[in-house]
Amino acid sequence: MEGAERRCVEDLKELEGVVFDTAEKLAGGDEVKGGVTLAEFVEKLPKKISKIWRWDSSSPSLSLRGCEGDEESAGTGARLLWVGEMGEPEERGYIVGDLIPKNHATTIHGGGGSAKSMLAADLAVRYTNKGGMWLGYPMHGQGRALFVDFELDAAEFNRRVKAVAAGAHISGPLKNLAYFEVGDMPTPQAFKAVRALCNEHDFDLVIIDSVGPALEGDVGQAKDVLAFHRKYISPLRKDGRTPVLIDHQGRSYSEGEYQGKGAYGNSYKEHLSRSVIQADPQPKDEDSNELVVRVRQKKANFGAQRRPFDAVVTFGEGVVIIERRDVEDEELVAERTVSIEKRIKSALADANLDKYEIAARLGSDVGYIANKLSKLKRFGEVEEVGKEGRTPIYGLCGDSSSPSHPLGVGEGDEESSDGDSQPRIAKDFG
């Protein structure tokens, strides 16, 4: 090999080594030199490079930029903190009551026709334009919301949101609420655009409707559900946004089966949400313009689980009214989100019963009910009031919780209306 050729090969190998060293340092998060020199070769190169690297025109250094919503961003944001230096904990924030915690994921799931998207639209409208109450729970201030739609289109959302606003007595153009129609955009591009929109317009509430079409891969696989949250939901949270995820659930053929259903797919859908709410449409007359949706909080990481209630959705011409209605204690006997002890006491508030009758009313196993009755008897909540043959008959103790409210009333449940006047149904629907 001639001398000139040898030097050329050696120079190329040296250049190759520099490139690999640079790439390795960038991947490790280290800064590298050479920014100013690159700018001397191509004047606009820094602007192009800034899409991949952090660029400071006053510094000769470059460092790798984590791309928003793609593979390279996975795992970013990790940090080590010494507990003794963390100071006093900040007060936990909420968007609504203690149903929707701030900067954490909340999932609202339900079957077809459960009005879950309508409830989410009502939340968005009230949070951005009215404040006050949502489904009987106080909203903590107002803010700006982005509704990200993976299912429908702008025309349908416009109809829905205008009808909901009319039902909430909000007139004039809606403010601080934006709609993003995803269409056929791939999920990585969609969430990259969502983060950019949130940064540009300072949205603090992001509603994603729905997770099924948005999630890449198999909803039944833990790795795909985990990847969805790590790549797209966690970055929103770290940016200071509150994601509310609308999701479907599997088909069911009885009320008991419906209550037992979770968000469709892998259980990590719910494991990674701090609050999980189920919307359950109740049977209705075929010609009725009213839909009653049983709302259950099935998971509450940061507080007491709220007792179920009904959202009454009344449909009219260009108006949708959504109101809360408390559920009578006798109806809650069949609610699985209510503790079995409270359900037993509620059943006994109506009549003295044996373990078989209680099990039949609660749809539970007799042996399980017998164990719970023994526990309640030991704590002075129930007592044997007689026998049918050799089978004990149970009733509530005289000093136990008042039979009129054996299930108790949770915080935020006392308020059964959102402050709007009741006569508007007659006015709007004749």
Structure description:
The longest helix is centred in the first third of the chain and has 25 residues, at 3-27. Strands 10-9-11-12-6-13-14-15-16 form a nine-stranded mixed β-sheet, sandwiched between helices. It folds into three domains: 3-67, no CATH class; 94-332, P-loop containing nucleotide triphosphate hydrolases (Rossmann fold, 3-Layer(aba) Sandwich), CATH 3.40.50.300; 339-396, Arc Repressor Mutant, subunit A. It is built from 14 helices and 18 strands. It has helices at residues 3-27, 35-41, 45-49, 116-129, 154-167, 187-201, 211-214, 222-238, 255-260, 268-271, 340-350, 355-362, 366-378, 424-429, and strands at 32-33, 53-55, 61-64, 94-96, 100-101, 106-110, 133-134, 137-138, 145-149, 177-181, 205-209, 242-248, 275-281, 290-300, 309-316, 319-326, 382-388, 391-396. Mean pLDDT is 83; it is low at 55-74 and 400-430. With 430 residues, the chain is of the alpha/beta class. Helix 4 crosses helix 5.
Which descriptors apply to this entry?
single chain; 430 residues; alpha/beta; Rossmann fold; Arc Repressor Mutant, subunit A; 3 domains; nine-stranded mixed β-sheet; three-stranded antiparallel β-sheet; disordered C terminus
Summarize it.
With 430 residues, the protein is of the alpha/beta class. The protein has 14 helices and 18 strands. The protein has three domains: 65 residues, no CATH class; 239 residues, Rossmann fold, CATH 3.40.50.300; 58 residues, Arc Repressor Mutant, subunit A, CATH 1.10.10.
